[in-house]
Amino acid sequence: MNYRFDWTPIWEQRDLILSGLWMTIAVSLVSLAISIVIGFVVGTGGASGSRSARLGAALFVDTMRNIPLLIHMYIWYMALAFLKLPAFACAVLGLSLYSGAYVAEVVRSGIGAVRRGQMQAALATGLTRLQAFRFIIYPQALRIIAPSLASLFSQLIKDSSLASVIAVAELTYEAGAIEGQTFRTFEVYITISVLYLILVTVASQLVMLVPGARNDASSARFADA
After folding, report:
1. Are 188 and 55 a contacting pair, CB within 8 Å?
2. CATH code, domain with 146
3. pTM for the full predicted model
4. How big is the CA angle at 30 (ends 28 and 33), to the nearest 5 degrees?
5. Which residue range(s) make up the domain with 53?
6. What are the pLDDT digits (tens) for 50-65?
7. Does residue 90 belong to any structural domain of this protein?
8. Using CA atoms, how far apart are residues 131 and 44, in angstroms rounded to an integer?
9. Which residues are CB-contacts of 140 (< 8 A; sequence separation ≥ 6)?
């Protein structure tokens, strides 16, 4: 094999690569924000004492997780085409609902790991249930689930590449376009692999900045060992 790497065409198409990178970041950030909201709402319902709330949360989680992410995007983009949603919105909705279901399970587990006496003590001090969750339960649960959230958020960034199939001009989409023009397959996909690696690493490290998250993750690894 006498293949010779030539990075010149990639450099000449850097504007497209940067455009795709920013689109990937935008899709990931918006989807991340929505999935967090969905996850905390559904996860709280799954950990509540209400049987109907738990059933509703379980139904949502099972439905969203058992449908492939690609199908989620096709449903919004093609099956519900009469809504005339932009491709960006379809990608965000698919990613948010799919990832939100996984976040919900992590949140439910995190809340369940907080001692029940914490809620009772908070209510005894005069806090409402909502205030107790906000000031007492969520901060403790977040420290516990931060390592798991970091993994989920990293996966969300990688899953955003599927938005290319519905013509969202993100990193993978632009890479395909550049490869079709230049035929520099290795160079193009090595470049975007490095960019995805950087994005995922940065996202993971940002989540681990949650106070106590690193200690909890280290303790978990030590326990597993």
Report:
1. no
2. 1.10.3720.10
3. 0.85
4. 105
5. 16-224
6. 899 999 999 999 999 9
7. yes
8. 13
9. 114, 118
